[in-house]
Amino acid sequence: MSLLVPTGGVVPCQPWPHRLVHGAWRVGLEDLIAERPYFVVAERRFADQVGQRNVIVDGGESGKTLNHAEDVVVALIQAGLTRSHVVVALGGGATTDLVGFAAATALRGVDWVGVPTTVLAAVDASIGGKTGVNLALGKNLIGAFHQPLGVVVDSDFWLSLPEVEWRSAAAEIFKAGLLRPELMERLESCSTAREAANYAVTAAELKLDVVAADPDEHNLRLALNLGHTLAHAIETQGNGRVQHGEAVAIGLAAVLRLNHPQATHHISLLDAWGLPTELPSWADAAGLVDLMRRDKKSNTDGLRVVLPGANGSCHLVDRFDPERLIEFAV
Amino acid sequence: MSLLVPTGGVVPCQPWPHRLVHGAWRVGLEDLIAERPYFVVAERRFADQVGQRNVIVDGGESGKTLNHAEDVVVALIQAGLTRSHVVVALGGGATTDLVGFAAATALRGVDWVGVPTTVLAAVDASIGGKTGVNLALGKNLIGAFHQPLGVVVDSDFWLSLPEVEWRSAAAEIFKAGLLRPELMERLESCSTAREAANYAVTAAELKLDVVAADPDEHNLRLALNLGHTLAHAIETQGNGRVQHGEAVAIGLAAVLRLNHPQATHHISLLDAWGLPTELPSWADAAGLVDLMRRDKKSNTDGLRVVLPGANGSCHLVDRFDPERLIEFAV
Q: What pTM does this model have?
């Protein structure tokens, strides 16, 4: 077991080019890329917001396939993509993952900017340069670390989001709170997920700090996987029946019960925000264990899991028995 | 026009971890990765040389597709791949390109080692970390810069190579000679492609020096594309009718005729080695021009081409008219 985040928090150890910009997305984009030529790859529902020189994708987790990434690259090249262009990914987290991966591999890599249109994507997927697509074997098993030039957070996109999206984001914001006590203090006064989402940008900034300190996930960045080992397995098995944030809430509840002095207190907050904190009835425990054994953070020594400690600290545990996570998830 | 390689040659400007090792491949591999666990992805014809924990691919340029890369990643993950493993690519240049790309994207990137089994792959594809697959639109349009831990050159693999493979390698060795005058001096005394291939390792070392000085192809590395703008277009149009090295010879002859004081002298050497130095009869000039306009090295300003100068120097020219290359290729 090794200490990942000591009490006192994270200090970025290197200059970091990837920027977080707020406001109207066209203005933020110009702020990031100045006069460089660009193509927007947008979800269909935003087709009317982007100009003619763009590519449309369906969005959603089911669209995160290698074939769709190829479609995006082909469309961009046919539209005239060169290495001088910037690719702009406009949509939810599945879209920023897919389009970021297309940008990572088109012409062996072109610059990109994320414009997340959901709170969850603004807090999580669009930040930190993890891009990728899913395999039937599991989520994000093909991908690349490809840092965007920056991310533009335009909260106008959030106005029409359904309740489940706010809940999903609140789970990731809660995770950030476990790593940053002053954020958790504020979250404790939030009685709904939507209130918690007021701290979306604070959570995004925490993620950016952690990633800046360890972009390639050698140590510190692993802390961001708090609750995610079980969550990814649930999502893969759920195959659309559960949102990312809901699965994360179940995963966080499990690691809290397993290890944390304030587990009950913390879990009651997730409950209050309407997030699930136990395995769904359809879950198959043996299947989840198998999926966890294939986790990307595992190595030849077995499963690696992050466990939360007191005051924003957390620990990396090797050779963890995945069955224990299941045991504490109910 | 800007000077890429000044007279006097290339000086690597940074420490470079990617190593070149000679000898029996199993010994060289252990030298590179010590005790780390690994999987070999090998072409079918070498299936008997690799152990049980391996993945077999068909090899060849037609196998360089995104679907095959996905097949390789799936097979590796099913075999138990983790980020601690090393992936070993054993085969010709199409195989090291394909498997290197699978390694670049599996689990968002695992370490890899190239074991080229052809002279051409030893001189060119396996060196320098350019990995990728082809699209119908053109060669290597999806890929990644992913440096191998090293490359093992085991010349026992070369014993049974057909004549066309030696010729193909000789074209790339000749290109290295245009950048390193002391190599060209020696090549001038070679009367056959097979003799020229004695300088394969010298050419590989030159490539490694250039890549070490500019791994992401911002400037100096572009010099290695000498002759390749037209060559890639010919290969794409030829669709299997021409080998990479043959297309490179035609491309080199074109830039020599266009620009070089010793063009006739140099081209006679390519002729002597049995390499083509003019466009094949099936070539469609207008189609080649279109393909060149989509070249990855192009930008919004137009086509970028590398032209050879005297004494190992070369120049980068922007806004080049691709029709001029066609004009000088016949």
A: 0.89
CA distance A133 to chain B (A): 10
Specify which residues A54 forms β-bridges with. Answer: A40
Pick B77's closest partner by Cβ from A70, A130, A141. A141
Measured distance CA(B114)–CA(B257) in Å, rounded: 35
CA-to-CA distance for B196 and B181, rounded, in angstroms? 15
Q: 3-class DSSP state for residue B305? A: strand
Residue A272: Cβ within 10 Å count: 13
Residues of chain A with Cβ-Cβ distance to B301 below 8 Å are: 84
Q: pLDDT at position A7, please? A: 60
Query: Are the beta carbons of B108 and A37 separated by less than 8 Å?
Result: no
- Mutation choice for A interface testing from B65, B108, B139 by most A CBs within 10 A: B108
Q: Domain ranges in chain A? A: 2-13+162-327, 24-153
A24-153: in CATH 3.40.50.1970:
yes
Matching fold, domains B2-13+163-327 and B24-153? no
Q: Is A35 on the interface with B (CB under 8 A)?
A: no
Spatial CB neighbours of B162, under 8 Å, sequence gap ≥ 6: none
Chunked into runs of 10 residues, chain A (330 residues) has average pLDDT values of 62 60 92 95 92 87 95 96 95 97 97 96 93 92 95 93 94 96 96 95 91 86 94 92 95 95 94 97 96 77 88 90 94
| DSSP-derived secondary structure letter, A329 | T
CATH 3.40.190.10 fits B2-13+163-327, yes or no: no
Q: Are A306 and A289 in contact (CB under 8 A)?
A: no
* Of residues B238, B231, B232, B229, the one with CA closest to residue B284: B238
Q: Which CATH number is A2-13+162-327 given?
A: 1.20.1090.10
- Mean pLDDT (whole number) for B136-140: 88
